[in-house]
Amino acid sequence: xxxxxxVTIVFLVAFLAIGLYVSRKTHTVEDHFVMSRSASAFFITxxxxxxxxxxxxxxxxxSTITQLxxxxxxxxxxxxxxxxxxxxxxxxxxxxxxxxMTISEFFTKRYEGKLVHIGASVVIFLSMTVYMISVVLTSxxxxxGLFGWSTKISLIVILTLLTxxxxxxxxxxxxxxxxxxxxxxxxxxxxxxxxxIVALGGIGSAVNQAxxxxxxxxxxxxxxxxxxxxxxxxxxxxxxCMLVGGSPQxxxxxxIAKSERELGKAMVYLAVLFPVVIxxxxxxxxxFPLFNxxxxxxxxxxxxxxxxxxxxxxAVAIAGVMAAALSTISSLHQxxxxxxxxxxxxxxxFPKMSxxxxxKLNRYCTVLIALIVYAFVSNPAxxxxxxxxxxxxxxxxxxxxxxxxxxxxxxxxxxTNGAVWSIFLSVLVIIxxxxxxxxxKLPIWTPVNVIGLMVSTTTMIFVxxxxxxxxxxxxxxxxxxxAV
Amino acid sequence: MNRNLGLYWAFxxxxxxxxxxxxxxxxxxxxxxxxxxxxxxxxxxxxxxLVFYNMDKKEVWGK
Lengths: 484, 63
Known about the structure:
The structure holds two protein chains of two kinds.
Chain A: H1 3-22, H2 29-34, H3 41-68, H4 71-74, H5 76-97, H6 104-110, H7 115-147, H8 151-199, H9 203-213, H10 226-246, H11 248-251, H12 260-282, H13 300-307, H14 311-349, H15 355-377, H16 387-410, H17 416-438, H18 448-466, H19 474-481
Helix pairs in contact in A: 1-8, 1-14, 3-7, 3-8, 3-12, 3-14, 5-10, 5-12, 6-7, 7-8, 7-14, 7-15, 7-16, 7-17, 8-12, 8-14, 8-15, 10-16, 13-14, 14-15, 16-17, 16-18, 17-18
Chain B: H1 5-27, H2 32-58
Helix pairs in contact in B: 1-2
């Protein structure tokens, strides 16, 4: 066993131990779903960064940046920060006041009727599961490259570990473990990115070499024609907004904060720290082609860990990738299980279910989702390179219900008809456009999430305007009474 | 409760932005795309810090 395998296993065992240790404090449904609303800004920042970066950020983006240039894919983090601030300092405060246990609960409290609740819950469950498949696919690339494990062995190890601490500790275990992982991820960022620049002789030397052989890295669109590059930048920025503002695994962190100020503080920490981690970690991979190492772009990160830094640092960085993967998957896993158990099975079929039964059901659902992901990813027809398609599709699905949340919080006239039509119509459009794009019937640069967001927003506004409003909504009035 | 917290973080982000832009201005042959990129990615920290400082000053937080 080499040092890379040894250190990664030590870190994995440590994360599992932390998760299980913290789970001792989890007794009630509120503990399990929202850690009894006790998280400080430090924990919220840690879990948000760890969940957001994922193994897609490390392996997927370092690979893409190596091929296409550094700015095209990392420029999206500007939109990530803007949306985080909008969420934490404005919208999140209203959601916080609603005391939500699950994101689907927003639809029950704000809109009348079951249809909107069912639509939102199904979209959340599906998008979380597809997103989880995307991140698992990139994690398998890591375990294969690092340990030489087959897809099935990797899946069994990853899903067993996650299922263990997600079923026992719920949100509390996920958040505390995420924060520990964030520290390892930040350490990895500080080691690996700068190592590339140092190996090229410093920033001056690296830039001079790049100007001769890869001048495209100084352009925003990178190594692509301008139209494709700029449309991709647009899509990735909208994707980021959707990811932060609409993805349940991130928006659910609003409900764990111990106060509104603590939530706002976390978003300010995030807006300053996250760009530093991203730029230091990922931007230098734009210079990677200068090594002429002959390695595949997908292996650029692991190659850097093994060749440009002392083995112990490289091992910690690789453990950081595993940490990023596990933290994201655990959050997605937890949210998918909550959507399936609480928002779909309990709310629709067994509304009178007791808290203890719900807790048990949630644990069964966590195991069931792990099995579903296993079945999909172990299918030979699913290739690791499909991770980006899965990510973009899952993300586009968030566009279906984001207007129903954001307009529901800020616009009193937003009504149930608008929310129902907005969700169902945009889901159909998103699926149709995704299929047409993948079949080559639409140009590859067609931004699915932008189209989905435009359809859902305009539908929400027009249907709400032209159907009977529900202006005596007590929830809307209550959350706005406390606002200044 | 430190009411200047937002201000400190805003200055921190401003410092990072200035250092990054100066580095690009000194070394890069094509400067503006990277300067735009850095400004887009780092400046939300400045805006966020200032907004948070203002919210703290006005005590807008609910219980």
